[in-house]
Design a protein that fits this description.
single chain; UDPK; Helix Hairpins; 82% helix; binds adenosine-5'-triphosphate
Length: 134
């Protein structure tokens, strides 16, 4: 058990801070990699992301359109990763059936659904006129 320190925290040296930030970045990348290995949904998102970027390049999207598309794609990835994290924590703390565990998973899945629907609307608004005319 670590002994509680008294007084203000000593400011860490810059190289140590940089090393810590680099390590945190590595942990985050490891998290994305682990999710990609275990979640089939994410392979679908990866394929959809490649398709959307290719379509955007083909259509010659304007700058604001790229902003909307990139934010939408990123938000869906973000929601899916958080959903994966929630599922892992729920499975850890409640391997047996519990109504709250089920609710937590359902709500996390709902977040993905809401974001995916919003992204679909963005897709229709951005790509619709180009693919099907004004
Ligand atoms: N421990 C639990 N207690 C109660 N209900 C659960 C529990 N685990 C899962 N559920 C219910 O089963 C549903 C499916 O859970 P599951 O863990 O299979 O996720 P999933 O939606 O299949 O996602 P994925 O395919 O990414 O694993 C949940 O949304 C929830 O309603």
């Amino acid at each position: 058990m670590p002994v509680a320190e008294s007084g203000p925290p000593t400011p860490r040296r810059f190289p140590a801070l940089l090393r810590q930030r680099a390590a945190s970045f590595g942990h985050a990348l490891r998290g994305v990699g682990a999710a990609l290995r275990t979640e089939v949904h994410l392979w679908f998102h990866a394929a959809a992301t490649v398709a959307v970027v290719a379509l955007g390049l083909y259509c010659g999207l304007a700058r604001w359109e790229w902003v909307a598309v990139v934010l939408s794609v990123g938000a869906v990835w973000c929601a899916e990763l958080v959903n994966t994290a929630v599922e892992a924590v729920v499975d850890l703390v409640s391997p047996q059936y519990h109504p709250l565990a089920g609710r937590a998973k359902d709500v996390a899945a709902g977040a993905v659904l809401v974001m995916a629907l919003a992204a679909a609307v963005v897709g229709v608004v951005v790509f619709g006129p180009r693919l099907w005319g004004q």
